Amino acid sequence: MNDPTVEQFLPGLPARTHVTRAGVAWLQYGTGPLMILCHGGAGSWNHWAANIPGLGRHFTVAAMDQPGYGISGDVDRDIDPQAYLAIVAE
């Protein structure tokens, strides 16, 4: 699955988004050791858009849309924290 906002936020970069079986969306860009970016609060991976090109020169950047945000699948508002983490871990 390609997120149509990748081109909007990272024009010309060969970044791609992937969605896991659990419905969690990840943007991937760059090469090198893995660096995982997790946004806080509301929002999505695009909070990191200004940092991804530079970081991608040295790292494989994996920027997550937390469950219920961005293009990740929705979760129950009353989800147990351990169940939420299990979705992310999957």
Distance N terminus to C terminus?
A: 18 Å
Which class best fits the helix and strand makeup? alpha+beta
Gyration radius (Cα, Å) is 13 Å
Unreliable stretches (pLDDT < 50, length at least 5) are none
- Give the overall form: elongated
What is the makeup of the main sheet?
4 strands, mixed
Proportion in β-strands: 15-25%
Order of helix and strand elements from N to C terminus: HEEEHEH
Q: Into which percent range does the helicity of residues fall?
A: 10-25%
Question: How many DSSP-defined strands?
Answer: 4
Count of discrete alpha- or pi-helical segments spanning 4 or more residues: 3
Let me know the average pLDDT. 87
Biggest sheet strand order reads 1-2-4-3
Layout of helices and strands:
Layout: H1 5-9, E1 16-19, E2 25-29, E3 34-38, H2 52-55, E4 60-65, H3 81-89
Parallel strand pairs: 3-4
Antiparallel strand pairs: 1-2, 2-4
